[in-house]
Specification:
mainly alpha
């Protein structure tokens, strides 16, 4: 319990310390004109209140990963709490805040366009392809998953729930952001917060009260498949969105077009990431406590073939009571749906930005959106585990690209960027170690680490010494 509380306290404290440090480094100007003022279009560029922009950003980034990833990551033991805390501050919050601020300073440009400006046109094309792939995977997964949950908890067939969810996504993607998303997200936000509070209360007063099984004295790899799941890189691949996520980088420009003042950037971006890290900490701690310890969690995961949804179902039905279980399930559905709708919306905006298609016209918004919905619907037929694995490595690649882009921005403005460079190097190493090991190439572990170190050094040299060829200013 002490370790958990310390981690939460450190996350909250970072908002007032590291968050202010980044505010200065990113040249946040409280009096500067923002994109919602300069480029108001009544569709995507619309000023929204701080409460709404914060909740939209939080719900955009808090999908299934802070829940499923946290429970799977809990199998590694208390070291997962360290990763969520330190990663959430020095990687996730840095990335989200920086990408959001840089987007504001560039007229609300999307993530691939920012990469193109600060890392060059080839990086723009690569990031654009990876962004669309991730957004479509997320859209498909977050269409199918809530439909499965709803069909399991009601008498309505899954296909009907998919139809309802898709209809909502269509409206949320095409209509102005203040018509659907701006009005429903406060309600969804209450559900997400309610879910978290139920879990926190249950940890202290429930049948599985939180004991000091999360002590850092037992730090190390406690995974039940230790030989197949080495701490590096698998912990950092398993828990992503609660610590650092490329998906967040794709979402931050949405709010860059709605923030009313740069003064609101820190609470919206840094604050929302810290809130998500706390949610992830809660689910990680619950995973380690609910079944009586990390080893017992490993037994449960082994019995259900590592299925996080099955573990969630067990916790909700057997540990939280009927009311608490329903609140948590509804919160999970809300978190999932509110990432799916903005994934579709950002996919539309990414295509529009890439091909310079204005979005005031309803017809143009529809013409871009229909093919995206068709592709995502086809992708819902792909096995969930396969989709989740692809989402994991694409997500990591975009997280690294985001951190390198931040380095490029700082270099462009002749500012110190060591605090962004170190996370960029670390994430690049994680990606190469995953791809060369468990993720595909199947190198022996030591060979994988050597290969990853050499590949990471090559990327760093490429960044430091290759001539940059940025896009022309629009």
């Amino acid at each position: 319990m002490v370790t958990f509380l310390i981690c939460v306290s450190v996350l909250l404290l970072s908002y007032f310390t590291y968050g202010r440090f980044l505010e200065r480094k990113l040249d946040i100007n409280f009096s500067a004109r923002v994109p919602s003022d300069k480029y108001y279009d009544g569709v995507d560029y619309i000023p929204l209140s701080l409460g709404r922009t914060f909740l939209i950003q939080l719900l955009n980034i808090a999908g299934l990963s802070p829940i499923f990833g946290a429970l799977l990551g809990a199998a590694f033991g208390p070291v997962a709490l360290l990763w969520v805390t330190l990663g959430g501050i020095f990687m996730g919050a840095l990335q989200d805040f920086a990408v959001g601020a840089i987007s504001m300073h560039n007229g609300g440009r999307g993530f691939p366009e920012l990469v193109g400006k600060y890392l060059g046109p080839r990086a723009r094309i690569f990031t654009g392809v990876m962004t669309m792939l991730l957004l479509l995977i997320v859209s498909a997964v977050f269409t199918d998953s809530p439909a499965v949950l709803l069909s399991n908890w009601t008498i309505v067939d899954k296909s009907y729930w998919i139809a309802i969810i898709v209809l909502y996504y269509v409206l949320a993607t095409i209509l102005p952001i203040d018509k659907i998303i701006g009005r429903l997200y406060p309600f969804f936000g209450i559900l997400l917060i309610g879910m978290t509070l139920v879990l926190v209360v249950s940890m202290f007063v429930g049948d599985y009260q939180m004991v000091e099984i999360t002590s850092l004295s037992s730090i190390g790899n406690m995974h039940y498949l230790k030989d197949k799941m080495p701490l590096l890189p698998m912990l950092f691949v398993t828990i992503t969105c609660g610590a650092v996520s490329g998906f967040h980088a794709t979402q931050s420009p949405i709010m860059a077009r709605c923030i009313r003042s740069e003064r609101e950037a820190r609470p919206v971006y840094f604050g929302a990431m810290i809130a998500e890290s706390i949610i992830t900490l809660v689910w990680t701690a619950v995973g380690m406590c609910f079944f009586g310890g990390v080893k017992q969690l490993g037994v449960v995961l082994s019995e259900c073939n590592g299925s996080a949804p099955d573990v969630v179902g067990t916790i909700c039905t057997k540990g939280l009571g009927p009311v608490g279980g329903i609140i948590v399930i509804i919160g999970i559905i809300a978190a999932t749906v509110t990432s799916g709708d903005t994934a579709f919306r950002m996919a539309r905006l990414t295509v529009a930005d890439f091909f310079k298609i204005e979005q005031r016209s309803v017809l143009k918004r529809v013409s871009i959106s229909i093919p995206l919905f068709m592709i995502a619907f086809i992708m819902t037929s792909i096995d969930f585990d396969v989709m989740w694995r692809y989402m994991a490595w694409v997500n990591l690649i975009l997280a690294a690209m985001a951190l390198w882009m931040v380095c490029g921005y700082m270099r462009h403005h002749k500012r110190d960027y060591i605090y962004a460079l170190l996370p960029a190097l670390f994430m690049t190493f994680v990606i190469f170690s995953y791809i060369s090991g468990a993720g595909g190439m199947r190198f022996e572990y030591t060979q994988s680490l050597i290969f990853s170190a050499m590949a990471t050094c090559s990327v760093a040299i490429l960044f430091l010494f290759r001539a940059k060829n940025p896009l022309k200013e629009s």
